[in-house]
Amino acid sequence: MDKNLFRYDLAVVAILKNEGRYIKEWLDYHLLAGVDHFYLYDNDSTDDYNEIIAPYVEAGLVTNTPLTGGSAQFAAYAFALRDWRFFCRYMAFIDLDEFIFPKTGQSIVEVADEILSRDKSASSVAINWQMFGSNGQETADYSRGVLERFTRRAPVDWVVPIPHRDIPGGNSQIKTITNPRKVYTFFNGHNPIYFGAEYAINEIGERVDSYYNEPVTAEKIAVNHYNVKSREEHLKKVARGRADKGGIAKELADKGENCIDPTWFNMYDRNEIFDDGILRYRAAREKIFSLPNDEQRFFRVHDTLTKILSAYASGKKFSLETALTCRAVSSLLRKNFPYDEHFKVYEEAALAAVLNSLEELSFADVQLLLSELPEMLKLPYPVVDELRGACLQIISRTLDFLRESGFWKDFVDMDNLRRFLEAWR
């Protein structure tokens, strides 16, 4: 795909609550590291978070979405994928105590591109944690940033079982930078559930199929994880609870259901290795940083969309991923400029390109297509009914595959969709 079709090369998705003390440093660092946009989901914050991010929202760098209630992390990730997957070449899913650190001095995207060039079939980069300790700090010193205060970490290959779960923890755990058009959803905060047989690789090109990667690889890129900070800050984190479970962490810990409790500090407060590499990286990136120009992005995307749809009008076929991306981009332009008739022409042409790309689809392609079908069925063009009929044929063939393979849950879900499409007019 032409990367110029995407509004953003890399966006970060994060769920947060009461992170006002930390958000500015985290945003500023990741902008320097090459992040173009942030999709933030605010889970009932009561601090001054909204005031602090206001300049970033006004500058078009942050999309801020309120998300109330417990167990909000996976809902946030699902909403980000649903709403924005076609506008970002990559998405990274991290927390506010995590900083993606390219150790080569490059931008995050440059490193991701280099790693994925090793395996053209891979969809994501799995990045190991590097766990930083408290530097012996009992109380919080908010006059300095996290990166300055905490410069000591565990050894690179430090791995320890997670309390109450007896599964690998420590630096073995990963976070993911992914092509979001290949992702179905998240069932944990580390690695996604993919469409079809998509997968991630680590920095040396080895396949990663779980939430952890062993042996730990962190020569080119790592996620610096400031999990405990000072003891005072850790206790506040315990009281706040977990975004992936909701509720009060200590209550869950008492039931053996939550690993983030006061005893976690003693296990994860590791300070053996002095490491200020991320500070030196930040200083070097500051010398070359310039704020992205959103207007230039718009014209770049518009010109690329025009070029692709013109090629389609001349008889060229595109992959389903490209056609669906063109559809999403043209639909957004049409909504933003409702009185400009040529964006409706773009939208209808993109739908026709989708219809014309429905040959030799993988199972992952079929899943992506059907995830976008409800939005396409809403559109007021004659080609939509042809698209519905073509999807019914694809579903019929896929049902045979699912039945023969014994994938009964997928079979039932797809059969329900088939019955809906047959009744839809």
Topology overview:
Layout (H helix, E strand, L loop, with lengths): L7 E9 L6 H10 L4 E6 L6 H10 L3 E5 L5 H13 L3 E6 L4 E5 L5 H9 L7 E8 L14 H4 L2 E2 L20 E5 L4 E4 L5 E3 L5 E2 L5 E2 L12 E5 L5 H10 L8 H6 L7 H7 L4 E2 L2 H10 L7 H20 L6 H17 L4 H15 L7 H15 L5 H23 L2 H16 L2
Parallel strand pairs: 1-2, 1-4, 2-3, 6-11, 6-13
Antiparallel strand pairs: 4-8, 5-13, 6-8, 7-14, 9-10, 11-12
Helix pairs in contact: 10-12, 11-12, 12-14, 13-14, 14-15
Walkthrough of the structure:
This protein has helices at residues 23-32, 49-58, 72-84, 108-116, 146-149, 231-240, 249-254, 262-268, 277-286, 294-313, 320-336, 341-355, 363-377, 383-405, 408-423, and strands spanning 8-16, 37-42, 62-66, 88-93, 98-102, 124-131, 152-153, 174-178, 183-186, 192-194, 200-201, 207-208, 221-225, 273-274. The chain is built from 15 helices and 14 strands. Helix 10 packs across helix 12, helix 12 (341-355) runs parallel beside helix 14 and helix 13 packs antiparallel against helix 14. The two termini are 33 Å apart. The model is unreliable at 246-258 (pLDDT under 50). It is globular, with a radius of gyration of 23 Å. Strands 1, 2, 3, 4, 5, 6, 8, 11, 12 and 13 form a ten-stranded mixed sheet that branches. Strands 7-14 form a two-stranded antiparallel sheet. It has two domains: 3-286, Spore Coat Polysaccharide Biosynthesis Protein SpsA, Chain A (Alpha-Beta Complex); 294-423, no CATH class. With 425 residues, it is of the alpha/beta class.
